[in-house]
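Ticket #4471: structure output looks truncated?

Reporter: J.K.
Steps to reproduce: submitted the chain below (113 residues) through the standard prediction queue, then opened the result file.
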Amino acid sequence: MWIEHSVRSCSIYDKLYPGSAKFTAGSASTGMYRGLRLWEAAVKEAGSLKQEDVIKALDHAKIAAGPGGPAEMVPGQHHVRMNMYIAQANNGKFKIVKSLGIIDPRECMQGIK
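Returned output as attached by the reporter:
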């Protein structure tokens, strides 16, 4: 399901914005899309635009499909659990060489005492 969603999203983007600016993770467009959809899910659940209501609902917001697959907030962290990939670039195209699956975010505490 998510692969079809990603392909459809890229196709729509390419028609709207022809040229060299591509819809890629490196351009931050996929993260922005994911963030807006998670916010949308939280607003719908909260039934409100009040900041405190949306924050509570955002703590467990999920999306079933998006660029790279489903994503969900990790309760208490405000970080996202999502699919991760290792890809190789060749002539402006990316080839997934390894799918790492859904990865939990880990806080980097290096250098903090």
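Triage note (M.O.): checked the attachment and the full token line is present. The CA atoms of residues 11 and 23 lie 9 Å apart.
Status: closed, working as intended.
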